[in-house]
């Protein structure tokens, strides 16, 4: 039997304003990468099968609409496939 792991909720979901679900994470890019990206880096490095993008926002922009972080960082930089 095989199990497919899913890393979620990419990225910054644990840092939303007042801890409210699907809220806004207000932090610099450096802070986002330093504080919130480490688990995803490790998950991708270990071969995680899927990554679920968060419904939350980063500095007012919905995470699932962030081409920079989803395509640029997750797919191109971390090499998630």
TrEMBL record:
Keywords: Glycosidase, Hydrolase, Signal. It comes from the Eukaryota. Residues 2-80 form the Glycoside hydrolase family 3 N-terminal domain. Its EC number is 3.2.1.21. This is beta-glucosidase. The keyword Signal applies. It catalyses: Hydrolysis of terminal, non-reducing beta-D-glucosyl residues with release of beta-D-glucose. One of its GO terms (molecular function) is beta-glucosidase activity.
